[in-house]
Design a protein that fits this description.
Blueprint: E1 6-11, H1 23-34, H2 42-53, H3 59-70, E2 74-75, H4 77-94, H5 98-109, E3 113-121, H6 122-131, E4 136-144, E5 150-155, H7 162-175, E6 182-188, H8 194-199, E7 202-206, H9 210-219, E8 222-224
Parallel strand pairs: 1-3, 1-6, 3-4, 6-7, 7-8
Antiparallel strand pairs: 2-5, 4-5
Length: 226
Amino acid sequence: MSDKAHRIAIYDMDKTITVAPTWTGFLIATARSRAPWRLALLPLAGLAVGAYGLKLLDRAQLKQATQRLLIGRTISTVDAATAAARFADRIVANGLFAGAQARIEADRAAGYRLVMATASFDFYVTAIAARLGFDSVIATGSRKTADGRLRAVIDGENCYGPAKLRMIKAWLDAQGIARSDAAIRFYSDHVSDAPTLDWADEAFAVHPHGPLRTLATAKGWTILDW
């Protein structure tokens, strides 16, 4: 066990803790409950995904476009919280890897502060993290209208790739934690998180896809298949 002043376990969410990506599921569930007519716009969302595949949109633009289509340009914080709670209950009930849950509990028992760091939007991730007992969430933020409604516009950076590491470092600074005083382990399923995996003291590639498995093998990172 580390003798550092702070022990921090940072987890990616989609396909690391959850069995499947969550954004599309959240959009569809929210549209179904709030405005079922928006489900007719799913083909347009599919076109946006195709545009992303052709590199006509980046990941941030794709998320904003699909949110506008299936939720709307704005949503009240109350409605967003209601949708997030309903979705989080469903994910926690049947959408998690049992191995991830066991590892989270083991890290908690070992005295690690649990942090979720994900590209998903904080307005629904926070509900999932709370149900799993996480201490903090680092996620993609949303801009707000003058009267406090959430807009389908990202506030700051999309918490993905190198931006995720920048946001984690900013969180450490905000917590007043020096990197030299922290023992940090990081879990992810995807090679986009290579910057953070390389930066962590302990890197865990969780049931990694091919590119991450290759990199993890070369780097000597621990591979977990749960």
